[in-house]
């Protein structure tokens, strides 16, 4: 559970639930610490609602009660047998922890979940023989990992912001580019020990940046090769693993849950409610990959709202930064989607008429339900780059033409104008005017729109680009430009979606290859889905750049065997060009919903 959630208080929980602690044995003899809160009402039988976590099931001790139970207040009032389990090797559980343990083999997170459900059903009295599992972020991964080979009693699963593929879009790498600030912040407190952690205290007090400006901190840190020398001291195996595995190698493939999910959805299994946030800075891709793995098979519903990481679990979800949604989206989800889903599948109450996708449409700020995702009525179109910074759906007519800029790793483009440590969650709707005013950022925009334009589904960047170096990053951003006279936010350039691509993977994510200097090559990659309406009078803007710091680590722009191991002298300026000719048109493919 995420700190900051609602809480009923320990006295209320103590008055309505009895707490137990068990050592649940799994098939290889390891015993997993498992906390169970059982309703004191002995006249009914209740389903299990399970969360498996690496973050601790504290407070420990049968006389020490939690201040909240379940995903929201509705659950504890309705009555469930709440289960929290420390995963193997963490805190009070035996065994060896493995980050995103590879699926398959003698034991896995799937087998641990299966054995846990089997034990609970047989040994905890008063259960109705049904179980559900829920979790956000890392616990979301464990919820997702329960789906392949699920126990027959596990009839409902809700992976929320789950990590599915760490290299291709979740926490660690995005299209080969290392997500520096987020990973540095996470791994400096996620250490290899078993004592109950206190993440809030460790995050705030366990490390001194020495400056309130993270841009300055990471720039002074220098190349990634300095991170272990200066800060981690080679004592954090998880951080080191990220620096050692910088391509889609066997390390990442073994931890990719997507193929196992795809296979699981071919058979019978639990009903699935997969949840994500359009503005989740950590695990936006995970929910989408999980949903796509189902490919229309099984009872799987995708929910995407205007939320940051885990934002649907706390607060009312009515705004983010300067963007106002005018709807209490968090409350709506908890009361009208999440709670009815589990009530229906675990207790047989009510109807569950969930469509394939239950998604919030930003821009017009309304919930939509679709029978397919992307929407069946969406039409593929391309927003093409034109001369003089023009953008439109008409393909370029010029036989020649390109735009250029000089990218300097010593002066990278900041990913946010906010000063402070960490990754501000509001960066995903940040005003992009500061970036657009720099000479190392290309800007293309439409004329003011004469009618609303709604884009729904994944985006695909198609760049014909060249560099004077032998390696380069390309960042493409889709932006909603508000009219100059818009109340309170006049001229605001709201980031709708942005995503990097590391050029060395222009042929394959599995093997890095240098870019041919001065030669135009096709750079093509997918950006995560959106459902956004650009309102009449607004403009659609696209920005292209080669640094996004320190969200993304700096590319030296000179091909080296390993970017994390390279030294400062290998970082060089490069002249970047983006073609906009008839033969080599650059743009962003979108799906226009009519």
Features:
594 residues; alpha+beta; Rossmann fold; Jelly Rolls; 10-stranded mixed sheet; 7-stranded antiparallel sheet; 25 strands; 20% helix; 28% strand; disordered N terminus
Name of the CATH class of the largest domain: Alpha Beta
What's the overall average pLDDT, rounded?
Answer: 94
Radius of gyration: 24 Å
Shape: globular
Strand share of the residues? 25-35%
Number of helices: 14
- Overall structural class, as computed from helix and strand content, comes to alpha+beta
CATH topology of the largest domain: Rossmann fold
Q: How many angstroms does the end-to-end distance come to? A: 39 Å
Strand tally: 25
- Order the strands across the largest sheet as they lie in space: 1-2-4-3-5-6-9-10-13-14
Number of domains: 2
List low-pLDDT spans: 1-5, 194-205
Helix fraction bin: 10-25%
CATH H-level homologous superfamily name of the largest domain: Alpha/Beta hydrolase fold, catalytic domain
Q: Major sheet: size, sense and barrel closure?
A: 10 strands, mixed
Q: At CATH's second level, what is the architecture of the largest domain?
A: 3-Layer(aba) Sandwich
Strand and helix map with partners:
Blueprint lengths: L9 H7 E9 L5 E9 L6 E8 L19 H6 L2 E6 L22 H15 L3 E10 L1 H8 L8 E7 L12 E2 L2 E2 L1 H8 L11 H7 L8 H8 L3 H8 L4 H8 L5 H5 L3 H7 L6 E7 L7 H10 L5 E6 L13 E2 L2 E2 L4 H19 L9 E5 L4 E5 L7 E8 L5 E2 L9 E6 L25 H4 L5 E4 L7 E15 L5 E9 L11 E10 L18 E14 L4 E7 L28 E6 L7 E7 L1
């Amino acid at each position: 559970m995420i700190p900051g959630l609602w809480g009923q208080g320990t006295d209320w929980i103590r008055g309505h639930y009895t707490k137990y602690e068990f050592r649940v044995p799994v098939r290889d003899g390891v015993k997993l610490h498992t906390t169970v809160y059982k309703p004191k009402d002995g006249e009914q039988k209740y389903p299990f609602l399970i969360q498996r976590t690496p973050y601790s099931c504290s407070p420990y001790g049968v006389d020490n009660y939690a201040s909240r139970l379940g995903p929201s207040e509705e659950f504890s009032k309705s009555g469930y047998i709440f289960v929290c389990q420390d995963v193997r090797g963490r805190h009070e559980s035996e065994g060896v922890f493995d980050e995103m343990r590879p699926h398959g083999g003698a034991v896995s997170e799937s087998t641990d979940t299966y054995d846990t459900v089997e034990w609970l059903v047989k040994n905890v009295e008063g259960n109705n023989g049904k179980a559900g599992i829920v979790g956000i972020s890392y616990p979301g991964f464990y919820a997702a990992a329960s789906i392949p080979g699920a126990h027959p009693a596990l009839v409902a699963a809700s992976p929320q912001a789950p990590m599915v593929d760490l290299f291709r879009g979740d926490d660690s790498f995005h299209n080969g580019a290392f997500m520096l600030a987020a990973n540095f912040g996470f791994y400096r407190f996620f250490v290899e020990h078993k004592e109950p952690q206190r993440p809030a205290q460790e995050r705030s007090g366990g490390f001194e940046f020495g400056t309130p400006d993270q841009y300055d901190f990471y720039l002074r840190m220098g190349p990634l090769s300095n991170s272990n020398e200066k800060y981690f001291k080679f004592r954090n195996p998880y951080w080191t693993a990220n620096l050692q595995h910088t391509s889609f190698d066997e390390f990442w493939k073994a931890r990719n849950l997507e193929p196992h999910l795809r296979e699981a959805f071919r058979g019978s299994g639990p009903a699935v409610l997969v949840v994500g946030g359009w503005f989740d800075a950590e695990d936006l891709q995970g929910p989408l990959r999980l949903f796509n793995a189902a490919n229309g098979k099984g009872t799987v519903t995708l929910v995407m709202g205007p939320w940051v990481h885990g934002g649907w679990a706390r607060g009312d979800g009515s705004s983010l930064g300067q963007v106002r949604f005018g709807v209490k989206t968090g409350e709506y989800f908890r009361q009208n989607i999440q709670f009815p889903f589990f009530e229906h599948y675990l207790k047989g109450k009510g109807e569950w008429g969930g469509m394939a996708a239950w998604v919030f449409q930003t821009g017009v700020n309304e919930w939509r339900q679709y029978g397919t995702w992307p929407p069946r009525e969406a039409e593929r179109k391309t927003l093409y780059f034109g001369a003089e910074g023009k953008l439109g759906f008409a393909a370029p007519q010029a036989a020649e033409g390109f735009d250029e800029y000089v990218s300097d790793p010593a002066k990278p483009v900041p990913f946010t104008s906010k000063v402070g440590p960490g990754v501000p969650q509001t960066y995903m709707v940040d005003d992009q005017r500061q970036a657009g005013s720099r000479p190392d950022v290309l800007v293309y925009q439409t004329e003011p729109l004469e009618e609303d334009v709604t884009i729904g589904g994944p985006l695909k960047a198609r760049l014909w680009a060249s560099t004077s170096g032998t390696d380069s990053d390309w960042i493409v951003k889709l932006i909603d430009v508000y009219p100059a006279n818009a109340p309170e936010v006049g001229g605001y350039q709201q980031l709708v979606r942005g995503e990097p691509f590391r050029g060395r993977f222009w042929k394959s994510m599995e093997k890095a290859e240098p870019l041919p200097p001065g030669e135009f090559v096709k750079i093509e990659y997918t950006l995560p889905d959106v459902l956004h309406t650009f309102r009449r009078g607004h403009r659609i803007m696209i920005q292209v750049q080669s640094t996004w710091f320190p969200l993304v680590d700096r590319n030296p722009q000179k091909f080296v065997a390993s970017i994390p191991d390279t030294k400062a002298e290998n970082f060089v300026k490069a002249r970047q060009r983006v073609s906009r000719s008839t033969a080599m048109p650059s743009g962003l493919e979108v799906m226009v919903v009519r």
